[in-house]
Design a protein that fits this description.
Largest sheet: 5 strands, antiparallel
Oligomer: single chain
Strand order of the largest sheet: 3-5-9-8-7
Number of strands: 13
Helix content: 40-55%
Low-confidence stretches: 329-335
Number of helices: 8
C-alpha cells in the first residue's frame, strides 16, 4: 500500500465507503501482512488441488501468459489450446453483452446516483434503450434527472453506454428491475440493481437545535430613500404649479371683461391734442415748432370734420373749401385761427 495520505476506498461488492490514512505505518504493515497471508493460503489451496496458477497484471497480455502456462506444463496440448482460444474468441466476438450498474449503491435522500446500461454489440447493430424522459420516475420515488449516451468502437465491436442520473426522496432500499434493451431486433435483459437511499444522520445529543434568531433591524439609509423623497417633492411641486395655473386661469375667465374703448369726437380729439401740446410748451426751444404742431392739430381736425385734405392745402385753399361747405360763419372762425398762426 503506497503512502498517499488520506484515501477514500469503496467495497466493489457491497458499495461500502470509508476513509483510511495510508500515512499510518501500522496500517500499511497490517495491510501488507494480511495480503501476504491471503496469497500464501491461496497458493497452498491451489497446490493441494493440483491447480496451476499465475499472476497477471492489468497491463499484461493474458493470452500470451496463458499459452506459456499451458505449454510449460503440457506441450502436447498446444494445438488444442490454440483451437480452443480461437473458438472462444469467435464466440465472444459475436456475443452480445448487456449489463447494468450504479456508480453509488448508497446515497443520501436527495442525492444523485448514475444508473448505467452498457451494451457490447457488433458494429452496425441497432440498439434501443429504455426511454425515461426528464422528471419521469423509473420507479416510484426514483426520479430521472438527466440522460446521457456515449459510444466507443474497438475492433468492430461497439460499446454503447446509456447513463441515467437518478435521485430519490424516500429513505429505503430500492431494487431497480431488469431493463429491456433491443439489440439488432432481439430482446436482451439487464440484471437487477439495488440502490440504498439513506436519511441524513443527525446526532441529537451533540447537535442540539439552536434557538431562533431575534428580529434584525435594518439600518436606515438615506441612499435608499433619497429617490423616493425627491420623487415625492417633485410631485408636490408639480401639483402646486398646476393648482396655481388653474386658479389664475379660472379667475381671469370669471373677471375678464372686454375693455370699453371710448371713441372721441373730432372736436374732443383736437382738444386733447392741443392740451398735450400746451402742457409740454416749455419743452419747445423755438416757438415755430410749437405753432407748427398746433397748426397740424387744426389741419387734422379740419380734414376729419369736413372731409378735405387740409394737410396738403394752403391756408387760402382751406378757407375756400370751408366757405363753400359751411358759409360765412365757419369761414370767419377758421380764418381767425389760421391768421393767428
Amino acid at each position: 500500500m503506497p503512502d498517499v495520505g488520506l484515501m477514500k476506498v469503496v467495497d466493489a461488492e457491497t458499495g461500502h465507503e470509508m476513509y483510511i490514512d495510508t500515512h499510518d505505518v501500522r496500517l500499511r504493515k497490517t495491510h501488507n501482512a494480511y495480503w501476504e497471508e491471503r496469497e500464501r493460503r491461496l497458493h497452498e489451496t491451489l497446490d493441494q488441488s493440483h491447480v496451476d496458477s499465475m499472476a497477471v497484471a492489468t497491463d499484461d497480455d493474458y493470452v500470451k501468459m496463458l499459452m506459456e502456462l499451458f505449454f510449460k506444463k503440457k506441450p502436447m496440448r498446444k494445438y488444442t489450446v490454440i483451437i480452443t482460444l480461437l473458438v472462444l474468441a469467435a464466440v465472444c466476438h459475436a456475443q452480445v453483452q448487456v449489463t447494468a450498474n450504479v456508480d453509488s449503491a448508497r446515497i443520501l435522500v436527495g442525492g444523485r446516483s448514475h444508473y448505467t446500461i452498457t451494451v457490447l454489440a457488433p458494429q452496425g447493430a441497432k440498439v434501443s434503450f429504455p426511454e425515461y424522459n426528464k422528471k419521469k420516475e423509473i420507479l416510484p420515488s426514483i426520479e430521472v434527472l438527466g440522460i446521457a449516451t456515449d459510444t466507443t468502437l474497438t475492433d468492430n465491436v461497439q460499446e454503447i453506454r446509456r447513463v441515467y442520473t437518478l435521485t430519490a426522496w424516500d429513505a429505503r432500499r430500492y431494487t431497480i428491475p431488469a431493463q429491456k434493451v433491443m439489440v439488432g431486433g432481439k430482446e436482451k435483459m439487464t440484471g437487477a440493481v439495488t440502490l440504498d437511499v439513506q436519511t441524513v444522520p443527525v446526532d441529537t445529543v451533540k447537535n442540539t437545535p439552536m434557538p431562533p434568531d431575534g428580529i434584525q433591524r435594518v439600518p436606515f439609509s438615506w441612499g435608499e430613500w433619497m429617490p423616493v423623497a425627491l420623487s415625492l417633492v417633485l410631485s408636490i411641486v408639480l401639483l402646486g404649479i398646476s393648482f396655481y395655473l388653474y386658479r389664475v386661469l379660472r379667475s381671469r375667465k370669471r373677471g375678464w371683461k372686454p375693455k370699453k374703448i371710448k371713441t372721441l369726437s373730432f372736436y374732443e380729439q383736437a382738444r386733447q391734442d392741443l392740451a398735450k401740446i400746451s402742457a409740454s410748451r416749455r419743452s419747445y426751444i423755438e416757438q415755430k415748432a410749437f405753432y407748427t404742431d398746433v397748426t397740424n392739430v387744426l389741419r387734422k381736425y379740419i380734414s376729419r370734420r369736413f372731409h378735405i385734405n387740409a394737410m396738403e392745402m394752403t391756408t387760402c385753399e382751406i378757407l375756400e373749401h370751408l366757405h363753400e361747405a359751411d358759409g360765412e360763419t365757419v369761414t370767419e372762425r377758421s380764418e381767425g385761427s389760421l391768421q393767428h398762426r
